Amino acid sequence: MNLLVLIIIFTTLGGVLSVLAAGLFLLLPDQRRNHVLPHGISFAIGALLAVAFWGLIPHAFEEVKPEQFRALSATILAGILSFFVLEKLLIWRHCHYNTCEAHGEDVHDHDHGHSHGHGHGLGHRHSAGALIILGDSIHNFVDGILIAAAFLTDPKLGIVTSLAVAAHEIPQEVGDFAILLESGYGRAKALFYNILSSLATVLGGVLAYFSLEDLHHMLPYILALAASSFIYVAVADLIPTLHKKTELRASLEQIALIAAGVLLICVMHGFAHSLEV
User: Quick one: how far is CA 4 from the chain centroid?
Assistant: First the structure.
């Protein structure tokens, strides 16, 4: 199958379909949704870490000479630190509109949508929603580039990378929906803007296909940045939300679902290698 067609299909899977899945998830009653969401987050952690350490990083090192190993490792480190700085800037920007520091709010959590906008005017609440849409669009555009880079390196790697993107996008999109609804958007408008934002994944993938084919020497470093993005999201954004539940049963469930996420990616990686794409 044509590589561009594969990139379009799987960037759509990683973007638009994850939004639609999150939209269906929102049809559940609030209590049920809040109960199920942490399980999705646990699964996404395993999927992200497995793709980073089982797929992206090994493939990146396979594409370079031994004397480039240190530069590639530095790229992973720089990527993790850069994502920390970027997220810090986004949090500061968010707090500027919502004065969250003054109210003691924690804007880092993914399941705190109902705390946004309390005590503020409608304009501030809509600003928070607009920032979520803008930030999500940029994030999705980068995801599209990463998926395309993985496909250009190895179509089998592209498949598991797009699955990992979808795995972490679904719980994130659910959190974004909650923020948009609390910011004053109706359900239909929130769904529309999230779908529009998700199309940036396809746009990023298509643009990357036409530009990265001439920049093969950059692909290992793009894969390294993709790995650092997945590691940062899993370790800095998602794992802290799991520590809120300290009961033994909840902890065992989290470990089992993380392991399930890792296992799925490893199985899919092996299955993809058995296919002639």
Answer: 22
pLDDT 10s digits, 37-82 = 778 788 888 888 888 898 889 888 988 899 999 999 999 999 999 8
Distance CA 164, CA 48 (A): 6
Burial class (CB in 10 A: 0-12, 13-18, 19+), 34: middle
Which two three-digit tokens encode residue 239? Answer: 């794992």
3-state secondary structure of 110: coil
Rounded CA-CA distance 165/167 in Å is 5
Q: Is the pLDDT of residue 179 over 70?
A: no
Cβ distance 243 to 38 under 8 Å?
no
The 3-class SS string of 200-223 reads HHHHHHHHHHHHHCCCHHHHHHHH
Domain ranges within the chain, ordered by starting residue:
3-273
What is the CB neighbour count within 10 angstroms for residue 215?
Answer: 13
pTM of this prediction exceeds 0.70: no
CB-based contact 177:158 (threshold 8 Å):
no
240 Cβ neighbours under 8 A, 6+ residues apart: 108, 109
Flag whether pLDDT at 127 surpasses 70: no
Distance CA 64, CA 205 (A): 23
Instruction: Calculate the average pLDDT of the chain.
Output: 78
108, two tokens: 């880092």
104: burial class by Cβ within 10 Å (0-12, 13-18, 19+)? exposed
Cα distances from 193 to residues 117, 131, 176, 188, 196, in angstroms, run 19, 12, 11, 9, 5
- Counting DSSP H helices and E strands in the chain, the numbers are 12, 0
